[in-house]
């Protein structure tokens, strides 16, 4: 009986909640609204900033992080405007903060709330390397990977009954289980200084974020070829015998990622050169 109910939920919800990820065109099931996800993300984001050391905005590193974040957000908006979908990002309220931490990590919550850890800056090395990271993380939010993971979890854990959808409904049905699911996807339940904010995405979603990220960074005026060099440095970091960086959790293998990025570079380069949208070069 439980399997029959589960199949019914999948069938009924997929009829109206199946959407396509921008650029990649992959179909995904979304059972939660942007408003619901963004509201919970904002609460988690504020809690994180309150319990971690935010680097002062007037420092050189923090200014660079904000500059890159602003440029990529504007590039993403430009992409959707050029593709006749100017309202796609209407609910996003972009914010980027640099946090003092030795972790090699960065993340972007639903709705555009982003954090970069100082620990990743020695590997990004420069502003373009940082754009690789931030383009990737922004793409997770734009592709609504968090909403997708929540939707999959709500179905798998029976938090919705047939014909139902919405984070609010799941909270009403099973508030504790729904909160636990949120914590598992976004790791917001970890104590201060731990891996708070590490979004738990699958490898397909990580590869998809690489693809979108290349295009957004290119449209922002950053050379996408730097992605190969950056991921080479990340591969060296993970292969030095120490524990792999948090940023590499559930990611594709280093070799596969770099091969995929090289395959995608011709498309991204068109955006960088201005022949397919983006910033026109002299």
TrEMBL record:
Classification via InterPro entries: Mito/Outer_Membr_Metalloprot, Peptidase_M48
Pfam (any one): Peptidase_M48
Cofactor binding description: Binds 1 zinc ion per subunit.
Keyword check for Cell division: no
Protease is among the record's keywords: yes
Domain Peptidase M48: from-to ranges: 65-263
Keyword terms of this UniProt record: Hydrolase, Metal-binding, Metalloprotease, Protease, Zinc
Gene3D superfamilies: Metalloproteases ('zincins'), catalytic domain
Cofactor dependency: Zn(2+)
Family listed: Belongs to the peptidase M48 family.
Official protein name in the record: M48 family metallopeptidase
Native organism: Arcicella aquatica
């Amino acid at each position: 009986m439980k399997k029959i109910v589960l199949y019914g939920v999948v069938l009924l919800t997929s009829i109206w909640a199946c959407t396509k990820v921008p650029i990649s065109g992959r179909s995904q099931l979304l059972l939660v609204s942007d408003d619901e996800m963004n509201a919970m993300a904002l609460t988690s984001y504020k809690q994180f900033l309150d319990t971690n050391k935010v680097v002062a905005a007037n420092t050189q590193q923090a200014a660079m992080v904000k500059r890159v974040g602003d440029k990529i957000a504007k590039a993403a908006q430009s992409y959707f405007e050029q593709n006749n979908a100017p309202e796609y990002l209407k609910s996003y309220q972009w914010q980027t903060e640099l946090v003092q931490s030795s972790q090699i990590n960065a993340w972007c919550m639903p709705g555009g709330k982003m954090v970069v850890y100082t620990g990743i800056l020695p590997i990004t090395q420069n502003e373009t390397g940082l754009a690789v990271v931030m383009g990737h993380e922004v793409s997770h939010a734009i592709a609504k990977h968090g909403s997708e993971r929540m939707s999959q979890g709500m179905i798998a854990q029976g938090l919705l009954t047939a014909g139902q959808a919405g984070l609010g409904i799941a909270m009403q049905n099973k508030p504790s289980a729904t909160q636990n699911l949120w914590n598992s996807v976004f790791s917001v339940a970890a104590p201060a200084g731990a891996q708070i904010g590490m979004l738990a995405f699958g490898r397909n979603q990580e590869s998809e974020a690489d693809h979108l990220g290349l295009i957004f960074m290119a449209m922002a005026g950053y050379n996408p070829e730097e992605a190969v060099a950056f991921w080479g440095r990340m591969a060296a970091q993970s292969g030095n015998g120490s524990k792999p960086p948090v940023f590499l959790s559930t990611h594709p293998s280093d070799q596969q990622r770099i091969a995929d990025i090289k395959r995608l570079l011709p498309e991204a380069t068109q955006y960088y050169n201005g022949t397919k949208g983006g910033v026109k070069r002299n």
